[in-house]
């Protein structure tokens, strides 16, 4: 049978289930990726499970999110993560080395392998001919312990690329075009595979840009073939021996077909406050900006910074405009310095920041109130920048640099200059980027600062209970709105009791106080519209509300990673059978649940009631038997402990 690249990767790693769309499959995981915002919990979970050493081919712990050391918390966690990496047999990337996704691509990614990461943008490494999937931290911990990763078999969307990208248009515009067509739900339940003659015109890092923001489409993964461009990239990294060719069979079919003629693309921009709110740059030119921000995992390549450098070379950015440069790896920064690009950017008046996630996750560079910020980052969810009432646009480095020169949104095609030709370095320095794991026989003690607390114990769900609805929310609620990132919140990532105080603060300032009042008297539930939990993979967005007594989430539908995180922590995820019933319920209504243990094991669809009202509400779940067992045990940690008895 002729297979596409995604099918080949899945078949090679399939340990359970069949490859029919919608069926649960188990996949062998070769590599894992954790970053510091999620990795502290993963390491605590490995400790709780009694793991001596990880069983993957390669696992890496990156410190890229929480780099601001305004007190002891982040610094202590960095020490903890290094000690855990040494203890459990994990590669360690120190603060300042750069963002996990491009650094992993440079140092460890291998065509034909699977990668599971506790960051939703792990899918970026699909650019290397890998099956790279973002997941909640505890799923990654399980993979590190040698367990399969379970996911519903996605449909495969084949995107045929033809033509070549015009001048002043870049890979960012390719993925923005996909978001313009399909919005933030267009990839849910799908792997997006790019193929066709246009692929050869995209560098490995161009493909990284496109694969990275597959997360914004809600896709399970994004896949590119491994071809001569990937071989060239690995040679630059001194890893040419890791290359293998991987491409779709001639005549391979896809479940869904899409086509992009690259030569027809124009500069695009996502308006506030959704990556799917995409229009041509030409429609919003002239809007004044406060900030233009270049970098992040969504534009991490040498050319992304070099093109901006050449655009502003010999010029000055507009008065009152901040041009923020966010290098994505130390390796990249060395080359940009060596070739004069950092000097060009600084001479033009830009601000240089350390290599890391930084402003993308709200760690610094927050824009002024009521002012527009242009960013090459992957997301512009409300408040993600660190400014509550922010106005963030997503664009390419070309658009960001051109706009910085004029102090307003500018179509880069209108600049009075030739499109710069960028020559990639033939070789990148790779020394010292990763610290190798300690030897298996070396005794390593975990270093725990006072901010690191144990994961709370959670009781299993009861059979009969009544729950008040504390929040009724709209569509596309993101994990940033459930639990914000940024420098105020993420330093408490290893302290569930403290981080829970920030839960849903963007939606309702009173949520924490109200939830605590209900927690010891049975807990509460919440309800929302479509695509609930889009965005980050951080499991804290499930774990913190669970600590506050969240027992049930009832929505129109879920984003994939957050759905699994809810299950992992014993929260019952339900959807409306009739979406119109969403209008029948209100905040503070009390919903009655009866005989739940037997009901969810024997029926996918059942009825609940609003206390004091005659109108029944039909709900459903799409849980597998394994999911149900986990929920009935009170979460995956209890489930694991029960298996070991």
TrEMBL record:
Transmembrane segments: none annotated. Keywords: Iron, Iron-sulfur, Lyase, Metal-binding. Gene3D superfamilies: Aconitase, domain 3, Aconitase, domain 4. GO terms for molecular function: aconitate hydratase activity. It catalyses: citrate = D-threo-isocitrate. InterPro entries: Acnase/IPM_dHydase_lsu_aba_1/3, Acoase/IPM_deHydtase_lsu_aba, Aconitase/3IPM_dehydase_swvl, Aconitase/IPM_isomerase, Aconitase_4Fe-4S_dom, Aconitase_put, AconitaseA/IPMdHydase_ssu_swvl. Residues 8-285, 286-407 form the Aconitase/3-isopropylmalate dehydratase large subunit alpha/beta/alpha domain. Residues 510-578 form the Aconitase A/isopropylmalate dehydratase small subunit swivel domain. It comes from the Bacteria. Its EC number is 4.2.1.3. SUPFAM superfamilies: Aconitase iron-sulfur domain, LeuD/IlvD-like. NCBIfam families: acon_putative, PRK07229.1. Monomer. This is aconitate hydratase. It comes from Gracilibacillus caseinilyticus. The lineage of its organism: Bacteria, Bacillati, Bacillota, Bacilli, Bacillales.
């Amino acid at each position: 049978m002729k297979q596409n690249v995604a099918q080949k990767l899945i078949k090679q790693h399939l340990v359970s289930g069949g490859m029919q769309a919608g069926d649960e499959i188990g996949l062998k995981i070769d590599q894992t990726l954790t970053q510091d915002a999620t990795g502290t919990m993963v390491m605590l979970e490995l400790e709780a499970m009694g793991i001596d050493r990880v069983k993957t081919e390669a696992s890496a712990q990156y410190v890229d999110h929480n780099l601001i050391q305004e007190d002891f918390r982040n610094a202590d966690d960095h020490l903890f993560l290094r000690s855990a990496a040494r203890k459990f047999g994990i590669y360690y990337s120190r603060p300042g080395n750069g963002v996990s996704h491009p650094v992993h691509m440079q140092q460890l990614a291998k065509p034909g392998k699977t990668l599971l990461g506790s960051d939703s943008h792990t899918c970026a490494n699909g650019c290397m001919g890998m099956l790279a999937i973002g997941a909640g931290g505890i799923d990654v911990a399980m993979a590190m312990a040698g367990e399969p990763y379970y996911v519903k078999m996605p449909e495969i969307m084949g995107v045929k690329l033809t033509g070549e990208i015009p001048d002043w248009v870049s890979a960012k515009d390719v993925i923005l075009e996909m978001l313009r067509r399909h919005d933030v739900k267009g990839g849910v339940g799908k792997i997006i595979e790019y193929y066709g003659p246009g692929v050869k015109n995209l560098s490995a890092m161009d493909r990284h840009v496109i694969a990275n923001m597959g997360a914004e489409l809600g896709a399970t993964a994004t896949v590119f073939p491994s071809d001569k461009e990937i071989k060239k990239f690995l040679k630059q990294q001194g890893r040419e021996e890791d290359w293998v060719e991987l491409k779709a069979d001639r005549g391979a079919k896809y479940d869904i077909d899409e086509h992009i003629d690259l030569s027809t693309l124009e500069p695009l921009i996502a308006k506030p406050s959704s990556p799917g709110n995409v229009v041509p740059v030409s429609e919003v030119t002239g809007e004044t900006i406060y900030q233009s921000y270049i970098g992040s995992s969504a534009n991490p390549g040498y050319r992304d910074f070099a093109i901006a450098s050449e655009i502003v070379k010999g010029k000055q950015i507009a008065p009152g405009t901040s041009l923020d440069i966010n290098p994505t790896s130390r390796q990249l920064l060395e080359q940009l310095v060596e070739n004069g690009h950092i000097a060009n950017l600084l001479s033009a008046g830009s601000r240089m920041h350390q290599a890391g996630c930084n402003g993308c996750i709200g760690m610094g560079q927050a824009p002024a109130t009521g002012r527009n910020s242009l960013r090459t980052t992957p997301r512009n969810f409300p408040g993600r920048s660190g400014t509550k009432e922010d106005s963030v646009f997503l664009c390419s480095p070309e658009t960001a640099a051109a706009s910085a020169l004029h102090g307003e949104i500018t179509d880069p095609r209108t600049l009075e200059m030739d499109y710069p030709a960028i020559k990639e370095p033939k070789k990148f320095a790779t020394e010292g980027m990763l610290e190798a794991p300690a030897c298996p026989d070396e005794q390593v003690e975990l270093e725990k600062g006072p901010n690191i607390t144990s994961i709370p114990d959670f009781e299993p769900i009861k059979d009969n209970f009544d729950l008040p609805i504390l929040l009724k929310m709209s569509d596309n609620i993101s994990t940033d709105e459930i639990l914000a990132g940024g420098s105020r919140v993420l330093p408490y990532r290893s302290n569930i009791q403290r981080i829970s105080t920030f839960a849903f603060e963007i939606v309702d300032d009173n949520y924490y106080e109200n939830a605590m009042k209900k927690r010891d008297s049975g807990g509460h539930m919440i309800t929302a519209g479509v695509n609930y939990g889009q965005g980050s993979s951080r499991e804290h967005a499930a774990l913190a509300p669970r600590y506050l007594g969240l027992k049930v989430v009832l929505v129109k539908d879920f984003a994939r990673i957050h759905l699994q995180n809810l299950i992992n922590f014993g929260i019952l995820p339900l959807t409306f059978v009739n979406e119109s019933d969403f209008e029948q319920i209100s905040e503070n209504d009390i919903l009655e649940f009866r005989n739940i243990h037997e009901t969810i094991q024997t029926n996918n669809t059942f009825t609940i009631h609003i206390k004091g009202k005659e109108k029944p509400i039909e709900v459903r779940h799409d849980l597998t038997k394994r999911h149900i067992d986990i929920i009935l045990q009170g979460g995956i940690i209890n489930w694991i402990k029960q298996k070991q008895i």
